[in-house]
Amino acid sequence: MARSATRHHAPHLNAVFEGYYSKFSFLSGASLIVVICSVPEGQKNRHQLSFTYVPPDSQNIIQYELWPEDMQRIPNASGNSFEIRVPGIGGMTCSNSSSTSYSFEHPKCVFRAKTSMPKPWSGFASTPEGLLIYLPLPLHWHVHSLGSLVDYELDFPETSPLPASDRRGKAIVHEEKNWAHSFPAAHMWVQAWDSARNHGICLAGGKILGMEAFLVGYRNPSRGLDLTFRPPFALSALHISPFMRIRRDWEQRRFELEVRSWTRRIRIAARAPEATFFALSAPFHDGHRKNFLTQSMAAQVDVEVSTQTGWLSWLGLGRWEKVCEEKFERAALEFGGAYYPLAGDERRKND
């Protein structure tokens, strides 16, 4: 993996907040979400370490959100390797080769893992934002790996034993992070990865600087597709955009996004059963706010890609021809902030 990708993954010590999100997909169909996030100058709930275990049927979810007193982000003197240390509990270490080690031991959760063979965002760009990552935006998003191999051990000592298949073994992990000033007032996130074929979809976006912007990546090597859509194509102002269409339906737990460039168009439709969602906390300038976003690991995501053909296609006036359509199961779907009507409510989705 390119060293620049590791550089973006390394700590940004001047950021108001910085958070690492890892989604482990087990062979059984279960998932484990690990969040390591710090708001160093926050007034309440400054540091978060959370573990959310989601069984294959998304019922009887186990979740522990821990609020340690200290969290240390330690860049190494050479290269881009670093360590996130949680005194008395453990930490996460990322090497110059982009492999990640996790080691946490707490009365509520014991977790150890080591990744290998990371899958970078793209063969053309080390990060979803491209050059946007160097701008002083209120929020940045980086995907470290679309799907690394991982060996792991997991236990929740205070709960009934996990199925043997989920206590240790091999898995696939999606690793990403956010940093800057705070989470957006409203956002969406979709993620799916088929490790057998190295196919996947990953997108994030929401309200930023009075507009709505998205970053979208789709990988389908069997069709030679390594696509990234970002502003100005994936951007709307006053709900108007010549290149992007959005439809959200919280009641149906459904999200649809269409983005096109001059030559390519992608349509994404994600939906998940209402009973499969669970809540997570989100970082803001004053600390973490509980139940500010909700996720499901049981989404179905449909992707359709078209290319523009015809002698007027270079003007954006050609005809669209479908070149690929694909369905992902057990995908992730997230509603956050204003797009999540229960944000900040005591009626947490997983209570």
Question: Could you please describe the fold and organization of this structure?
Answer:
This protein has an 11-stranded antiparallel beta sheet. Strands 12, 13, 14, 15, 16, 17, 18, 19, 20, 21 and 22 form an 11-stranded antiparallel beta sheet that branches. The N and C termini lie far apart (40 Å). By secondary structure, it is mainly β. The longest helix has 7 residues, at 3-9. The model has no long low-confidence stretch (mean pLDDT 93). The protein is built from 2 helices and 22 strands. It is globular.
Quickly count the helices.
Answer: 2
Provide the spatial order of strands within the biggest beta sheet: 4-3-2-1-11-10-9-8-7-6-5
Radius of gyration: 20 Å
Question: Structural class, from secondary structure content?
Answer: mainly beta
Q: What percent strand?
A: over 45%
Could you spell the SSE succession in H and E letters?
HEEEEEEEEEEHEEEEEEEEEEEE
**Helix fraction by DSSP (H/I, runs of at least 4):** under 10%
Mean pLDDT: 93
**Total number of beta strands:** 22
Report on the biggest sheet. Answer: 11 strands, antiparallel
Report how far the terminal alpha carbons are from each other.
40 Å
Shape assignment: globular
Identify low-pLDDT runs. Answer: none
Characteristics of this structure?
3% helix, eleven-stranded antiparallel beta sheet, 2 helices, 56% strand, 351 residues, globular, mainly beta
Topology:
Elements: H1 3-9, E1 17-26, E2 31-38, E3 47-54, E4 62-66, E5 72-75, E6 82-86, E7 90-94, E8 100-105, E9 110-116, E10 139-155, H2 164-167, E11 168-180, E12 186-194, E13 199-208, E14 211-220, E15 225-229, E16 235-237, E17 244-249, E18 254-260, E19 264-271, E20 277-284, E21 287-309, E22 319-337
Antiparallel strand pairs: 1-2, 1-11, 2-3, 3-4, 5-6, 6-7, 7-8, 8-9, 9-10, 10-11, 12-13, 12-22, 13-14, 14-15, 14-16, 17-18, 18-19, 19-21, 20-21, 21-22
